[in-house]
Fold:
Amino acid sequence: MPKMYLTRRESFSASHRLWNPSLTEARNIELFDKCASPNGHGHNYILEVTVAGQVRGETGYVIDLKKLKAIIRAEIIQHVDHKHLNFDVEYLKGIIPTAENLARVFWQVLEPKITEGKLFSIRLHETENNVIEYRGEE
Ligand code: NI
Structure:
């Protein structure tokens, strides 16, 4: 059967502050500039989750999109939408919530939940122009 790559797109709105607590205020401002402003700022994120797998003869699907949508919403969107990513989300505690770090955590959360096909990539759009892609590689 052919191998294909299926992508589901979801969106969420959240606030964050880029700040490394182990550094001085001056160094944080040097590194993160206005992204370090004390009360944070917001983004309308777009999350694209791609699953790779063979098209199943029984269904003609790689993965049932209803199931993929339900997994992404239950495991990610419900936890992060309208939240402050530095404070409100248990599985984001202790990380600097850059798009890179978010994508890595989202991979770790989703990968074991996807049992039809395999998680292939996470693409997280932080703005219209800035996108990070993670494929589970170290
Ligand atoms: Ni930001």
